[in-house]
């Protein structure tokens, strides 16, 4: 079967409507498609020129991973689509990553070519190391490349590689196929009522599912306009919303928190009217605190539409478009095509079939999806998901892919509860080592592994402490090598870690302790540490002391 994504892009390709608006101006679907086809042509021609690496098939990159370091905007989208249309796999990364982390990712993904925007040439330079660095501006001026071969791209060909942290030390590259992207975008278009009348305000990072797929692909494939900002900046976002030129906004809870701080500073004139006029405001990637949801409702008349997603499965559960059907603190119902299962501690499973697609027509709240025989009225346990939006596997990690699935179900590692009226809510994670800070998923083990390279650290435990602004705050609890306590204090440790880890993985605090609490097996009892450190914060002590 041919790629449904390519087919949809072809339908949009002649439209004179605005596809992307960035700080350089507006780009129509027709112009964007033309630019993407030129990128495709240049990638194929460049690939074909490289002696030993010559393409076996001159009209397909056949799954070559191409790293993108391009600022958000039309050029990012044309580079991304160009890679996909050439049969390649896009690996979009953040320019905020330090060179060491970018180099590791490029090498894990087997990257031979990078596409960079001029502004980010300096970021790309240290990781070039024998790889070719292509300027997006040059690619967009090339000839469009061989015609007709676009239909050779199959639905199950991988299109996107997103690195996600897990319970192993290093992140794993999740491969999402053309079908995954098309299904996810279509599910959300239908459930959230996107159309060519929409303009989405986009300020999410473009190296994770939320920004690339949930926001950008949904808007783009629905034929909506996407207003792309260079980065999230509360003042800028508040001004755009106040201007009333967008209809939809998607964000992580920390962004809502930042917007309220902006309002409280008196720095968001006209915001309430603009926000109230939005057709849709969604929240995801982390739990939206009920207080924030209610504050948004007081301002706009409706709580944000909260939904649950994950890199490997896309959005699985969503509150309905109809504000009356939403419930604060809950993430809603399985989307059509999504099968959900809850397995309790005793191994008892309840399963729910995909919701009735007609129940997801815009404006309607879905009805009760019947539990299969044996299904409990109220179920609580690990959430498993199955369906066509679930990813293909981790790049080069058959072991990890096999471990992530059981009987064809993807095990999310999230603990969920399903109420008797069919709604789901999340209760936490099965692993204490998976953290969420500002919507970014972090592996405590990955951060510990990096910190252990520091000569002054004898032992370390990384934990997530509940935090109003970030959801969880990353804290390193450290036993220092004798006489080297000063090097383990927050300031010096953060400076050291910033050279090695993406900024949001760097612990916000380091707490030096004489020893770590361990159980009889010698394992650090992290829940105990979290409680102790959260209590210190609550008592108003300086958590940096010690
Ligand atoms: C930035 N910093 C963070 C951080 N983001 N620290 C911890 N956690 C984070 N999430 C650091 C900065 O590096 C900086 O460090 C300091 O905090 C202050 O930075 P800032 O400029 O105030 O922050 P900002 O750059 O504005 O970032 C905040 C944010 C960002 C909320 C805009 O975190 C963000 O874009 N989050 C979205 C993450 C996301 O898209 N997740 C989706 C995953 S997919 P210093 O040292 O300089 O002070 C997924 C599936 C699904 O989860 O369901 O959606
Ligand atoms: P990621 O691996 O970065 O895609 O993050 C996916 C994880 O984010 C999920 O497994 C959940 O733990 C969390 N998540 C996403 N949406 C929500 C939500 N609405 N509420 C709580 N947690 C969420």
Automatic annotation (TrEMBL):
Skewed-composition ranges (Low complexity): 359-374
Domain annotation AMP-binding enzyme C-terminal: ranges: 446-523
Domain of life of the native organism: Bacteria
Coiled-coil stretches: none
GO biological process, one term: fatty acid metabolic process
PROSITE patterns the record matches: AMP_BINDING
Residues of the AMP-dependent synthetase/ligase domain: 16-395
Record-level Gene Ontology MF annotations: medium-chain fatty acid-CoA ligase activity
A Pfam match: AMP-binding
Disordered: annotated span: 351-374
Family recorded in the similarity comment: Belongs to the ATP-dependent AMP-binding enzyme family.
Record-linked PANTHER family: ACYL-COA SYNTHETASE, ACYL-COA SYNTHETASE FAMILY MEMBER 3
Protein name listed in UniProt: Long-chain fatty acid--CoA ligase
């Amino acid at each position: 079967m041919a790629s449904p994504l390519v087919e949809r892009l072809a339908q949009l390709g002649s439209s004179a409507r605005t596809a992307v608006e960035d700080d350089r101006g507006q780009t129509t679907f027709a112009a964007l498609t033309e630019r993407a086809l030129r990128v495709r042509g240049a990638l194929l021609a460049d690939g074909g020129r490289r002696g030993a690496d010559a393409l076996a098939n001159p009209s397909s990159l056949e799954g070559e991973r191409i790293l993108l370091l391009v600022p958000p905007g039309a050029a990012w989208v044309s580079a991304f689509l160009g890679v996909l249309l050439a049969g390649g796999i896009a690996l979009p990364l953040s320019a905020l990553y330090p060179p060491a982390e970018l180099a590791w990712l490029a090498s894990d993904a087997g990257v031979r070519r990078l596409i960079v925007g001029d502004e980010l040439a300096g970021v790309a330079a240290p990781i070039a190391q024998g790889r070719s660095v292509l300027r997006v501006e040059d690619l967009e001026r090339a000839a469009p490349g061989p015609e007709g071969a676009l239909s050779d791209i199959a639905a199950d060909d991988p299109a996107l590689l997103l690195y996600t942290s897990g319970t192993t030390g290093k992140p794993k590259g999740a491969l999402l196929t053309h079908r995954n992207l098309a299904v996810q975008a279509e599910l959300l278009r239908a459930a959230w009522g996107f159309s060519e009348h929409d303009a989405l305000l986009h300020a999410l990072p473009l190296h994770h599912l939320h920004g690339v797929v949930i926001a950008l692909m949904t808007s783009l494939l629905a034929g909506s306009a996407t207003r792309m900002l260079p980065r999230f900046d509360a003042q800028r976002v508040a001004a755009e919303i106040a201007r009333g030129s967008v209809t939809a906004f998607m964000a992580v809870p920390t962004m809502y928190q930042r917007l309220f701080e902006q309002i409280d500073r008196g720095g968001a004139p006209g915001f309430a009217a603009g926000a109230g006029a939005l057709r849709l405001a969604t929240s995801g990637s982390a739990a939206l605190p009920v207080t924030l949801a209610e504050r948004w409702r007081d301002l706009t008349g409706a709580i944000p539409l909260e939904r649950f997603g994950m890199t490997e499965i896309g959005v699985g559960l969503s509150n309905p478009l109809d504000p009356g059907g939403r419930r604060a603190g809950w993430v809603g119902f399985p989307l059509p095509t999504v099968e959900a299962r809850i397995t309790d501690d005793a191994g008892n499973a309840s399963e729910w079939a995909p919701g009735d697609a007609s129940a997801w027509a815009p404006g309607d709240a879905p009805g009760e999806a019947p539990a299969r025989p044996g299904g409990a009225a109220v179920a609580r346990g690990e959430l498993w998901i199955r369906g066509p939006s679930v990813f293909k596997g981790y790049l080069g990690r058959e072991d990890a892919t096999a471990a992530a699935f059981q009987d064809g179900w993807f095990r999310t590692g999230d603990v969920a509860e399903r109420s008797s009226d069919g709604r789901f809510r999340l209760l936490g994670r099965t692993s204490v080592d998976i953290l969420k800070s500002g919507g970014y998923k972090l592996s405590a083990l990955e951060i510990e592994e990096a910190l252990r390279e520091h000569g002054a650290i004898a032992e370390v435990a990384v934990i997530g402490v509940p935090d109003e602004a970030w959801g969880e705050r990353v804290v390193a609890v450290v036993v220092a090598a004798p006489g080297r306590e000063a090097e383990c204090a927050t300031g010096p440790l953060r400076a050291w870690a910033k050279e090695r880890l993406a900024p949001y993985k760097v612990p916000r605090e380091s707490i030096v302790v004489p020893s770590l609490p361990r159980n009889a097996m010698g394992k650090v009892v992290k829940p105990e540490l979290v409680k102790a450190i959260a209590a210190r914060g609550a008592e108003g002590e300086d958590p940096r002391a010690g």
